[in-house]
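Morning - magnesium ion inputs below, output right after.
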Amino acid sequence: MEYTVIIPAAGSGKRMNAGKNKQFIMLGDKPVIIHTLSVFEQDPHCNEIILVINEMEREYFKELLCSFKIQKVKQLIPGGAERQDSVYNGLMKVEGANSLVLVHDGARPFITIEKIQELVKKASETSAAILAVPVKDTIKKVNNGLVEETVERSSLWAVQTPQAFHVQLLRQAYEHAFQTNFLGTDEASLVERLHKPIAVVSGDYENIKLTTPEDIVYGESILNNQQK
Ligand code: CTP
Ligand code: MG
């Protein structure tokens, strides 16, 4: 099934502390955002990429798209203060009332076409699906430096992007979130508030989000492994 993907890339990457938007950090021979975009560029089921950017970086994004021959980005949409605002701006540009829409962080360059296909297949059956991996660490609730409790691990999953939804469901979830002043860190948390079922598809542990400087070191080793 065909889909449109919204890629939020309008953050400033504060936790990465790189002095620039982390999307522009080089991984091997390409900036992070180009690794991410290339996967969707190569996926024949992806119709269009809606890239959400910081307006101040528009010219640089345009240059990158041109030099790396990314052709599925038809629109560069200005982002907002929070990730949720950025995705919302992108969502307003999705055409067609029956399409499937994916949202994928620009800072997750190791997504594979195989996982996208598994996710899309599931979302076409259920209207909502996300990628996630079982949590490996023991997780505890801590309050004022003291352990409150150990959370039962067997039901904990770390969620990733892409997350895939029927476009009308996602629009409804975003409208509801804004009306109720809810700010979430992923799309599923908005859809959950409509009490709609969301299917979970097993992801790859390597589909990390580049967030802090250690992630770049790990990212380079993932890239080297993929190229072997
Ligand atoms: N993002 C966005 N608009 C925002 C904030 C984030 O489009 N206002 C994007 C980021 O560019 C990133 C993705 O959402 O691709 C996930 O967000 P995160 O990892 O938090 O990135 P940043 O917000 O850039 O990083 P930080 O929170 O460390 O500042
Ligand atoms: Mg952020």
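Note: The pocket of magnesium ion (ligand 2) is lined by residues 11, 83 (CB under 6 Å).

O.
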